[in-house]
Specification:
mainly beta; 5-stranded antiparallel sheet; Gal_Oxase/kelch_b-propeller; F-box-assoc_dom_typ1
């Protein structure tokens, strides 16, 4: 079975499973299959709160309409039924989406794609407004850098064997700049370990993985301590992404009941739900 998690937001997962895209809430056992789009870094999942107990979701596909000295971006949106092309376009200087950064980041109503030159494309699926955040990378970033959501800010996590740095994006609407907010000692990696990766961050927890033994290490920023979450079998496919998943029991407009889904999706839901039961309500998937 081929299954990839493309996104995670407010208790929903964006999956590529059975050769189709799928949005699912594994806790409420509901889902919606979408028509196919399988370029993961160009897809973003956004979940908007309608009222205290109800949400809706939108999947956004960003694409290049033209590319010369400038690039013109377009956006397609799927809210559960079909893909519609937004009237909004964005034209800016040319730079590719940054392949080092795994997925777009959803924060405060907008999806954010990082580009190779450090600039960020921001798109709000509700208002369909797009903008380019012109900014350079902070100096001294290592090859192990992650673009992620922080506490009320976009974050770059950059690590070496001794220290892990957390940069927050300030003044996002004007005069944007990266500010070093925190640094911690890297308590699990030494110079004898060559292959290791910064996998996930959500403002509360940081996930590192060592390649040779597949051990997943988690740093709790509240308790200021490292713990071992588990290990990834060495036979697993090398192309993997990690997501810090927090469950939600909210009602989501556009999701169907579990009764009509296939065995593959039932299995994924069961794996996530079982992991949450073991770990007390929050999991890395």
């Amino acid at each position: 079975m081929e299954c990839h998690i493309f996104g995670c937001c407010s208790g929903l997962l964006l999956l590529f499973i059975d050769d189709r895209l799928c949005v699912t809430n594994p806790i409420r056992k509901k889902f919606r299959f979408l028509t196919r789009r399988d370029k993961r870094k160009q897809l973003g999942l956004a979940v908007n709160q309608l009222d205290r107990t109800t949400h809706n979701f939108k999947v956004v596909y960003i694409f290049e309409m033209a590319k010369t000295d400038e690039t013109k971006y377009g956006f397609e949106i799927n809210a559960g039924d079909s893909w519609t092309c937004s009237k909004t376009t964005l034209t800016c200087h040319t730079s590719n989406l940054d392949d080092r950064m795994k997925n777009p980041v959803y924060l405060e109503g907008s999806l954010h794609w990082l580009r190779n030159d450090g600039s960020i494309i921001s798109f709000n699926p509700e208002t369909e407004k797009a903008r380019l955040i012109k900014i350079d990378f902070p100096q001294g970033l290592t090859s192990r850098t992650l673009f992620a959501p922080g506490v009320n800010s976009l974050t770059l996590v950059s690590a070496n064997e001794e220290v892990i740095y957390f940069y927050a994006l300030k003044n996002i609407l004007s005069d944007s700049k990266w500010v070093l907010e925190k640094q911690i000692q890297n308590g699990v990696i030494d110079k004898n370990i060559v292959s290791w990766y910064v996998e996930a961050y959500n403002g509360k927890c940081l996930v590192l993985r060592t390649w040779y033994d597949g051990v997943v290490h988690v740093y709790d920023l509240i308790d200021n301590k490292w713990v071992v979450m588990g290990s990834v079998p060495t036979w697993c496919d090398a192309n993997r992404d990690f997501f810090l998943f927090t469950p939600s029991s909210s009602s989501v407009v556009g999701l169907d009941e579990i009764l009509a889904c296939g065995d593959s999706l039932r299995l994924i839901m069961g794996l996530v739900d079982g992991s949450l039961s073991e770990k007390g309500g929050e999991a890395t998937c």
